[in-house]
Protein 1
Amino acid sequence: MQKKEQSKGSAGAAGGGATASGAKRGRPFGSTTGSSSLLAAHGDSAAPSTLLGPSLHVQSSFADQNNKRIVLALQSGIKSELTWALNTLTLLSFKEKDDIRRDATPLAKIPGLLDALLQVVDDWRDVAYPKDALRPSRMRTLGANCVVSGFGFEYDALGSSDTVSSLSSKAGPTNSKGTTDKGSENQPLQWWSQDDVLFNLDEDGRVERQQCAVAASNIIRNFSFMPENETIMAQHRHCLETVFQCINDHLTEDEELVTNALETIVNLAPLLDLRIFSSSKASYIEVTEKDAVQAIMGMLNSPIKAWHLAASELLGRLIINPDNEPFLLPFFPQIYKRLVDILSMPAADAQAAAVASLFNLVEVNMDCRLRLASERWAIERLLRVIRQPHPVPEVSRKAAMILESLASEPQNRAVLLAHENTFAEMLFSDSRHSDSFARILYELTSRPNTRVAAARGVWGM
């Protein structure tokens, strides 16, 4: 895998003194145009522009030759092995936005890899409970002067990492003068605390577990972008249970871990069937269909922009599958209210996410169209998206088609007639959406006792 930016590199070489920008997330530090500028400033004119800047090389056959080692390293629990495996998988799963990867690493090529990555996340979540939930420590006085009783020295599992070393130093062999032998410092009892091999149970160990879990979630997220992995991950119950559990605990969980889990679900949403949580497949975490939808609603109501926009897109993709409708229908009133609120945001990406979700939701049934039309400010904010207009023409077109779907229901006639003058103005002023507004006005002014209108009112056609 080789990542180069030829055009940016040549521009940096020409400028010579450009300021280096910050490293972007997911890329090695220094993989920006500033590196090329530094090389040009040193007078390396002999090197062509295509060689400027750092590059990463990973053999395409690396995963085939080391697949067992990677999985065993993830399962070992040894820091050095786990770090090597996570760094390797990060490189193998990394992909530029417009990069066409010929050496993509599908999960099917490495058996057991997804389960091993999920185990890294589960290991962190097993120790990630809040500190205020801990039982307060109790001072033990039984056998305070006796080392072999086991109660002589307080041993807190989440305390200092020097506990074992202090125990061994006090219980170590002594010489004839009654002093501790200096050579007893390197005893077998202390090897795991002195050598950086295993994860401790102290605060430092928890931080290291958390970092490994975030790195594993980032790898799972990267794998979800590859079409070869979508089917495998969308049908993997353990994977779905883990990411939904991370989303559900967004108030206490690491923010980057929650973001990676949410982006993974958004990528898998077109193939996701919520009935998998009640299937006969083995379950590792107790998650039901209702729990999954409630986790998404928590993201939708979050004040963090990236989270509620991703949740909006996720709902629009989930509703495409008719099997997911029974689980989403009870939450439709809350979904409509929140999506209309997102429409009021001035950001273009927020409006695009809300319109894309509403475009799929109004096509479910007649009740959905009636609920959206009765939602306060829904019509006004859809019209504002069309009037601005939106930077992406497709968003404005979908907003006009949503209004057209609402006008097809006779029960919405009274609500839409209040905006009849606005529709007529848009008909003659906006040629791009004149067809949609012409059909809207036709629906509003046609006789309500026609066969088509009656059929739509009764059967929701």
Protein 2
Amino acid sequence: MRLPVAIAVLVLVLAAHSDAEEAEPTLEQRFNQFQQQVVGLTDDLTEKTKTALEQFQNSDFAVKTRSFFSEQFEKLKTKFEETFPAQN
């Protein structure tokens, strides 16, 4: 009588243990999941950074600053050419 009960208990324990193992992800599955999360994060970060830089480059401040420096450079270039004329 004890032997069939012991076998039944052993089978139940093994079945419960195998179900518990299937529910927990393996180390490989965890690394794959982590990799997918990192890829998703970097893709999102790349897109947001690209959008922010494009918006800044086309902003009124950036356009005015570029034109200011271009004008100042041209003035400086003209003044330099007047002060030190090219000798051929």
Protein 3
Amino acid sequence: NKWRIVFPNNGRQWKDWKQASAFYSGNRIQTTKYTWFTFLPQNLFEQFHRLGNLYFFFLVVLNWFSQVEVFHREIAMLPLIVVLLASMIKDAIEDYRKHRFDETINFSKTRVYDK
């Protein structure tokens, strides 16, 4: 097992543990961007900030009008759907790996040095 070493700020001395624990928030590490509920909306929001994805979305919207229709509607949606799904899968795998690494850090043994 690897050990983390925590050096606290000893500027204040606390006599009551409840008072100290209410003052400090937990030291849990969380580097993930998403939760189960925010993954889809937040990821779509981030994907449509990219100019290429907006361009393909604009082409999809244009193909829904019969006057401007160049391709079939389904064929026009295909590149956008493929790019969005590939990016979502990549982001989900990356975020899951971050979550697993955070768990290993949060449940690792620590040594706390006090004066």
